[in-house]
Amino acid sequence: MQQTGRQSGAESGELYERFAASIFAYARLFAPSPEDAEDVTVEVFVAAWEQENLSWMSEKQQLVWLRRVAHNKLVDRYRRSAHLAPLPLDQIVETALSEEHLVPEQILLRREELERLTRALGQLPPTQQQVLQLRFGEALRFAEIAVLLNKREGTVRKLCSRSLASLRSIYRQQEQRKEPYHEKPE
């Protein structure tokens, strides 16, 4: 009953029934929204439908294959996404400025600090910007970042640590370039 090069509709339906919830849950861990996780899930099962040898695998092997495809689809989406662009700090500035409890001086100071952070982040290599965005902007755990970047968790931890150290260094350099304030004699 198998079509050439593809699983039959019944086999695909059974595969979907068994594993769709698991694949969606996995995709949801890394996708920015439930809708994106649904899209990844659909893409995974379309790929499964086009695969002819899944019916010969055990259930465990099928799940491993589906999760691997989901991982690859998530990585592809991430690489194509705007997440590789510099941090969207403009949105953070707007949020910071809309906080009603701040007095104008606090708003100005916060704006200056965010502009300073934006400049400092712009001096980091793209990989370091990406890791910091995922860790602090997207609030992902190191293990999740490692999966997305196809790196070991320890490597991601070191990269994040080095990125933060580089940021501190950039901040220190900025401080050293500032001229001290001198009052004019009366």
Question: Can you tell me about this structure?
Answer:
The protein is mainly α. The chain is built from eight helices and no strands. Helix 7 crosses helix 8 (153-177). The chain is elongated, with a radius of gyration of 24 Å. The model is unreliable at 1-5 and 83-87 (pLDDT under 50).
Uncertain regions: pLDDT < 50 for 5+ in a row? 1-5, 83-87
Extended strand count: 0
Radius of gyration: 24 Å
Tell me the helix content: over 70%
Which structural class should the secondary elements be placed in? mainly alpha
How many strands, what sense, and barrel or not for the largest sheet?
Answer: none
Query: What's the SSE pattern?
Result: HHHHHHHH
Average predicted local confidence, pLDDT = 78
How far do the termini sit from each other? 97 Å
Beta-strand content estimate:
under 5%
Count of DSSP helices? 8
Structure characteristics:
72% helix, disordered N terminus, mainly alpha, 8 helices, 186 residues
Q: In a few lines, what is going on in this structure?
A:
Residues 1-5 and 83-87 have low confidence and may be disordered.
Chart the SSEs and their pairings:
Blueprint: H1 9-30, H2 34-50, H3 59-80, H4 89-97, H5 104-122, H6 126-137, H7 142-149, H8 153-177
